[in-house]
Design a protein that fits this description.
single chain, alpha+beta, Phosphorylase Kinase, domain 1, Transferase(Phosphotransferase), domain 1, 4 domains, 6-stranded antiparallel beta sheet, 6-stranded mixed beta sheet, 20 helices, globular
Length: 760
């Protein structure tokens, strides 16, 4: 079970739409979180998937959640059943679905290998579910161990969950993910990296996850984006996998979609031909991470959190260590055998106004404390066998008191007597909040009311805090921007919780501003196509509401997605925008070899050769158009030499200046004696080039669609020892640039560039 955090939209004990009591958070995703809840009327457990606050007003993401709701039309026991979307009074949008009681394959994967017989049973069950989904032209696109749950631990009762990025392949259907990559890289089919998906994509993912479960570890697909792409083109290593599982995985996960089984029905036919599988009972308790029984606490105690390395604050802990996990789907190796949950990334908050003093509140507890001396045993249920409980029993006996960073205090849960219920209600009203208290009896200590209120008094100076009590166990989280407050609260809790309460608190000291320097390690590690920069770099750092905008170029959508995930997690709650251009590996090879030089103010103009060079402001040319290129020299540029080249999407470099037909590239020659800004044409129209023997473009055709890059270098002498050929490979040009920087004496003043895009 995932540990609750102060910033979660829902907290254990919250009541959603007067019906569903939140019991625990099951998992967090990029756009939504999933909670376990219980219908207060029927008692039935449900799962609630809620869009994160930043997406709840976005029509595209609402459409995505609506499409997921439509998965309810799939009627099969192997596919989780969905209900419908709702919106809370606060504007949070959530989707109701069945709660599947059992371990996920991702949990079992961490515990070690599974048997081939178990996996054949899971394969049959999941293939049946996929067949039902594919029959309605729904492709899952994110089939992975964490999206398959074994109901009751039984492989024969596997259930596919989370159709959050499922793609409707019916004619005219759309998805906001569009043709971009969706899914987890470790289990994604090769064609998925290019945004291509169909029913066979799910079959590849099924084969890959079966192999991972057999091995007891996630696939090793590489340590950087380029290795990921290369390894995805290779067949999976099936050494040691017995038949018939070996043959099934080999066909399902063939890198070539045409060589795979073409449908889930073919997979089921192959399983049928392989013969019956020996009966596989539900997995033993020792291998199952079972969900809590109803009689156990529904508010999980906090898990131990790994501290940052010595002399490093949480904000300084190396965020780049997690980027590979975002790319590959693999977490960094852990020591020990217990599953650990790391603390969330540091969240800087603006300092909150001082809380109102609650000193008068504690006097109201005097009566409660006096009565406890005689009535404590009665409250705790020790005498129920003789007298019967005063109030209906509550198992577990839960109470949640939370103070968000912005918003009113909220109290929800049980109280053992009217005195405490009244005190909690007055406390909530005094703080501008509300209380939802139910009188009940439970397995709590005699000092429980006084202990809980003492804990409230200790944490009340924090800007944000939350107390979740289950019987005598407490999950306490809180945060502050004040070092003094942090130290005072930590000291007060150093000897443990008050009285009979137990639990380990987590009190975070959060920086108000995120330094720009803290982001540089992430940007530097991910940059694979030239340097990445920030649109703005405030001297004091980024405040909690400041947007972070990254600019530059990257080699693939895979890397862009990894950067988005890494920065969003590290810089939360600040909104992150990755405003980069995705090029291709060949363009990026040159990008990394270009000399490090400042901009020189050379303007690169793109025009339409069929319209006398009329400007094409957005730099986009469609099939059939004829581009022309002009460079505009600034008035201050009067000496030196100009070098202009274009690198196209196919990996060819075309040198525009100097060339054999136009060898003189001196600035003085190009100016022709003209002062001020001067425009120089370096790529002519097809007609001009044909007539005058000048360099020019052919018309755009659909064989070379994508980005090309025009570069203009201003230097004090020749860049190379000899004139480069008019056309050469990217590799040859990149090597020449490296040699020039290593051995050349020419000083490079500036480098300007512009992208040219060809589209249909």
């Amino acid at each position: 079970m995932t540990e609750a955090r102060p910033g979660d939209l829902f907290q254990p004990g919250d009541i959603v739409n007067n019906t569903y009591r939140i019991e625990a958070i099951l998992g967090r995703g990029g756009t939504s979180d999933v909670y376990r809840a219980r219908n207060q009327i029927s008692g039935r457990p449900v799962a609630i998937k809620v869009l994160k606050a930043e997406f709840s007003g976005n029509d595209d993401y609402l459409l995505l959640l609506t499409r997921e709701e439509e998965i309810r039309e799939i009627r099969h026991d192997a596919v989780v059943r969905y209900s419908e979307n709702h919106r809370t009074a606060e504007g949070h949008v959530y989707l109701l679905m069945d709660y599947v009681d059992g371990p996920g394959l991702d949990k079992l994967l961490k515990q070690g290998p599974m048997s081939a017989d178990q996996l054949l049973v899971i394969c049959r069950r999941v293939a049946e579910g996929l067949q039902a989904a594919h029959a309605r032209n729904i492709v899952h696109r994110d089939l992975s161990p964490d999206n398959i749950i074994l109901r009751g631990g039984d492989p024969a009762q596997a259930v596919i969950i989370d159709f959050g990025i499922a793609k409707d392949t019916n004619p005219g259907a759309e998805t906001i993910v569009g043709n971009e990559f969706a899914g987890k890289y470790a289990y994604a089919a090769p064609e998925q990296l290019a945004g291509k998906t169909d029913k066979r994509t799910d079959l590849y993912s099924l084969g890959a996850l079966l192999l991972a479960c057999f091995r007891g570890k996630a696939p090793d697909i590489g340590k950087n984006p380029m290795e990921v792409i290369q390894n995805k083109a290779k067949p999976l290593d099936l050494t040691g996998v017995p038949e018939p599982l070996h043959g099934l995985i080999a066909r399902m996960a063939d890198p070539d979609p045409d060589a795979r089984y073409q449908s889930a029905a073919e997979v089921l036919a192959a399983l049928e031909a392989a013969g019956p599988v020996s009966e596989t009972p539900p997995l033993e308790d020792k291998t199952v991470i079972a969900p809590p029984r109803r009689a156990e606490p529904t508010v999980p105690p906090p898990l131990s959190a790994a501290p940052p390395p010595p002399n490093r604050t949480p904000a300084e802990a190396a965020p780049q260590d997690d980027i590979l996990a975002a790319i590959t789907g693999e977490a960094a190796p852990e020591t020990g055998t217990e599953e650990k949950t790391l603390p969330p990334p540091p969240r800087a908050k603006t300092s909150a106004p001082a809380r109102k003093s609650s000193g008068g509140l504690w006097a109201a507890l005097v009566l409660v404390l006096v009565l406890l001396g005689a009535g404590g045993a009665y409250v705790s249920g020790m005498l129920d066998g003789l007298t019967g409980p005063k109030y209906p029993p509550a198992t577990p006996f839960t109470l949640v008191i939370s103070q968000p960073a912005s918003g009113a205090l909220n109290v929800a849960g049980f109280a053992p007597d009217e005195g405490m219920a009244q005190t909690l209600t007055q406390f909530a009203e005094q703080e501008g909040g509300a209380a939802d208290i139910t009188l009940a009896s439970g397995a709590i200590a005699a000092s429980w009311p006084a202990d809980v209120m003492a804990l409230v008094e200790i944490v009340s100076p924090l800007e944000q805090w939350r107390i979740a009590v289950s019987d005598n166990d407490v999950a306490l989280t809180g945060s502050t921007v004040s070092r003094a407050t942090h130290d005072a609260v930590t000291a007060a809790l150093s000897a443990g919780m008050p009285g009979a309460l137990t639990g380990t608190p987590r009190i975070d000291l959060i920086p108000q501003f995120l330094p720009v320097s803290a982001l540089q390690p992430i940007l530097s590690q991910v940059a694979d196509c030239g340097p990445l920069g920030l649109a703005e770099s405030p001297a004091t750092g980024f405040a909690p509401d400041d947007p972070i905008v990254v600019q530059g170029t990257l080699s693939s959508q895979v890397v862009r997605n990894a950067l988005q995930q890494a920065l969003t997690a590290f810089a939360a709650p600040r909104p992150v925008t990755i405003d980069v251009t995705v090029l291709n590996p060949k363009l990026c090879l040159v990008e990394t070899r270009l000399p490090k030089a400042p901009l020189g103010g050379i303007e690169i103009l793109l025009g339409d050769g069929d319209a006398d060079g009329a400007p094409v402001a957005d730099g986009r040319f469609t099939v059939g158009q004829n581009p022309v290129i002009d460079v505009v020299l600034p008035a201050s540029m009067t000496e030196g030499f100009l070098f202009v080249s274009i690198i196209d999407i196919a990996g060819n470099v075309y040198h525009l200046l100097p060339i054999l037909e136009r060898p003189d590239n001196a600035i003085s020659t190009l100016r022709e004696g003209k002062p001020g800004t001067v425009s120089v044409r370096v790529a002519y129209s097809e007609e001009e080039a044909r007539k005058g023997g000048k360099s020019g473009f052919l018309r755009v055709d659909d064989s070379t669609l994508g980005f090309s890059k025009v570069i203009a270098i201003h230097a004090d002498g020749p860049l190379f020892t000899e004139l480069r050929p008019s056309t050469e490979s990217v590799a040859g040009f990149a090597q020449a640039l490296m040699d020039q920087q290593r051995n050349g004496n020419t000083r490079i003043f500036s480098l300007d560039s512009r992208l040219l895009e060809t589209v249909k």
